[in-house]
């Protein structure tokens, strides 16, 4: 049975409003497909929840971030076709959605309201983020005006994402009479983002005496993962409802409006631990990158080490065992322990598993290089050749079977260049690219609490690339606990070398680490993308020149 819009519950004089937050995974650039998602979700929200209004994320028609697709000459035509389709869909419910809108030759990031087949309200985002992964000033002009309107008898103000992180837009809407703020978001995940969002919404709602509906995007887009976690706060700063994170869905909340707009509180999901949230982000990132780009399957090199073990588990959890292939490529330095553990991981997860020795190829290459290498001593050249032969094998399997190659390097290794160009860096997507080595260990232990798939000795044995006899990572690097702390200060917090030393770290460790980070920028620029989980990942976040003479120190 349909619920009449604005109908009061029996025995009350307050106006009622049922809002459904559409936490949906949209595909960047697929404007017709995204438009149909909006239509289907609105109809489902009406049928299943008797919604009065359905709220969608920021720029849902284009997907987020659309980047330079916003500069395409046909953008306006495609958006107009989308709006015409929405108008003609005869939706039985009001919707609030995000789209790029052009006015007087300027493009705006806008929130629009569609009621009874007409666009009745348009709000242009006032604050355009231009930091970390955001680049909105490249594309959008800034709106100037608030937008407050009547929705089923409730005075509602519109804002878009960054507007709520700054003073002005919420205050303007509240001063104009709004008692409910609808905030459309495309807020990407990092490890403590949800807590920062909660602190912000608690303060904004209480200071302005307004309820806030915070609808966030969910899904993976290249290196970004959007974690959903849509929320509702009441006018006193209390969290009334929180949607699950990393899950699509239509999440319903009822409001009663008299003097204030009061949401009916709901039971909330248990908070995710650090390991749970990061693991879910990696799974979602791998699933969406693989599926949205049309790959049939994935393939990765399984070494018997912890990085490839965690990568394999993530891939299986994202795609299913039938779409994952693991390849062990041993050499004479590969230990029997590594061979045993790699096979145990593959069997535990039920994936296709192959063993291809690289020794015959290595010997052939060395025979070809015998003359130019005459009179030289073995060094990292021979070690890197092993990694590059493995890269050739994996890329050949990728070409032949349409499989995406997942690389397995972690953030600590990528930072200091402990990786081989055209070797273990050869591939399409690096699952652990933004995951420090110490967190990789935590993720391995977390995954084993779900089901035992990573042998204990893989977690406890000293990490090694096994490119030389008795090789250990710590032969050439500080221990990972120390290294990751130094990297956090230098890469994510921009401390100078002297400032890091002042934190109590050995000068030799700091200067060596900082130097390695700086000289390996050229490698990272050629690395595959990977899931961003920190506030400062390599890629869009951290942009340093390859060629420079900046000296370490102050």
Give a written overview of the molecule.
This protein is α/β, with parallel strands linked by helices and 554 residues long. The protein has 2 domains: 16-265, Nitrilase/N-carbamoyl-D-aminoacid amidohydrolase (4-Layer Sandwich); 276-473, Rossmann fold (3-Layer(aba) Sandwich), CATH 3.40.50. 35% of the residues lie in helices and 20% in strands. It has 16 helices and 20 strands. The protein has helices spanning 31-49, 75-87, 169-175, 193-208, 274-292, 306-319, 336-349, 359-368, 380-401, 411-416, 437-450, 456-460, 480-492, 497-502, 507-519, 521-525, and strands at 15-23, 53-55, 94-103, 106-115, 118-124, 148-151, 154-160, 180-185, 211-216, 218-221, 224-227, 231-233, 239-242, 249-257, 261-263, 297-301, 324-328, 352-355, 403-407, 429-430. The strands form 4 sheets. Strands 5-4-3-2-1-14-15 form a 7-stranded mixed β-sheet. A 6-stranded mixed β-sheet has the order 6-7-8-9-12-13, with helices on one face. A 5-stranded parallel β-sheet has the order 18-17-16-19-20, sandwiched between helices. A hairpin with a 2-residue loop joins strand 10 (218-221) and strand 11. The longest helix is centred in the last third of the chain and has 22 residues, at 380-401. Mean pLDDT is 93; it is low at 1-7.
